[in-house]
Design goal:
The complex is a heterodimer of chains A (152) and B (251). Chain A contains five helices and five strands, in the order H-H-E-H-E-E-H-E-E-H. Chain A has 152 residues and is α+β, with helices and mostly antiparallel strands. Chain A has one domain. Classes of the chains: A alpha+beta (152), B alpha/beta (251).
Chain lengths: 152, 251
Amino acid sequence: MRNQVNPHFLFNSLNALTNLVYQNQDEAARFIKQLSAVYRYVLSTRDKELVALTEEIEFLQSYLFLQQIRFGNKLKWKVEIKGEGLVAPMALQMLVENAMKHNIISDEQPLTIQVYSENSNVIVENNLQKSPYRLMSQPDLVWKILKDVTLF
Amino acid sequence: MNILVIEDEPSAAERLISLIRQQVTVTVLAQPDTIKSSVAWLKSNPAPDLIFMDIQLADGLSFQIFEQVTVNAPVIFTTAYNEYALKAFKVNSIEYLLKPIDANELRAAFAKYKMLIGKPAPDKMMESISYAMQMLTKRYKERFVVKVGEHLKSVEVNEILFFFSLDKTTFAQTTDGRKHILDFTLDQLDGLLDPSRYFRINRKYIVRIDSFKDMISHTNSRIKLLLKTNDDEDVIVARERVQEFKEWLDR
């Protein structure tokens, strides 16, 4: 997300917003606010190596709020962090995004994501229900990332 | 009109239904949100008059529904993005709607539906679905470039029996027993290979479906594989992968 600000995320969010504006204007306004909070964070942390954990958590909550609107009761989440610390920007969000990408999120099998602190660690935990479907996920983008990573 | 709405985002389903209701009087029979629940519903209920089907669902592409159950109803696909699928539908003139759904496009889709009803062309539809399916699933890696001495060589994926990792290096072993070093980790390969043919059995191995000559029950409810062209090492399907491995074989 950091380097590529995942275009699908914006796209999905706008799609969800289109539905929301007809159904619940107040919620739609909240949605827009959280969406802008997400992008503000992405921009403001672009050149930072580390950010305060509290900021990352706030961002994570915005991100989860947006996903919650898309998936409703199929997505359950709880963020409970005690203490302070520093973290690479979007590190926690990336883990959450991965959990959502690789697991089934459905009525029958809701996905539960928990973010909590234990001793001096932050733990991101989800129930494992792997999606058999490898998001025929924008193979071009995957390639690009792989190339970046492996200096192919 | 009785309709079935297959969609994995609740608000998108709600919006679609409200748009439909502005144009046509419908009864929504059910709103399954996965392939599994859609197949279950279609198997146990009479066919609806029309099905709205989102293409990307949590457990796969909705085209897979057609592989598991006979669908005796016309389908209007909805999709947020996939130009390949869209192209396929255009060519074969199956109706599709791009999300966010536009009221006028929906109206045109209903008009088309009314025109087509009574003129069943299921063969044509299956044909275009399998075409779309091909377009969507074809994109796995087909060959790797490897070094042989000073030379570079292209190795077809078809020639590779299995991939393994040894001392942080990834190797591909071909049908002739040769080992080639690859610039990918097994984790990366896992996403690049056709999952119907390749399976990650443990941290060290990705095997092709026809790469083993025998499977033997092993301690701790694991399975030991005897790989072709490889006799020296014990290759064991990790315990937590065994169930998935069996399902993969049994497909």
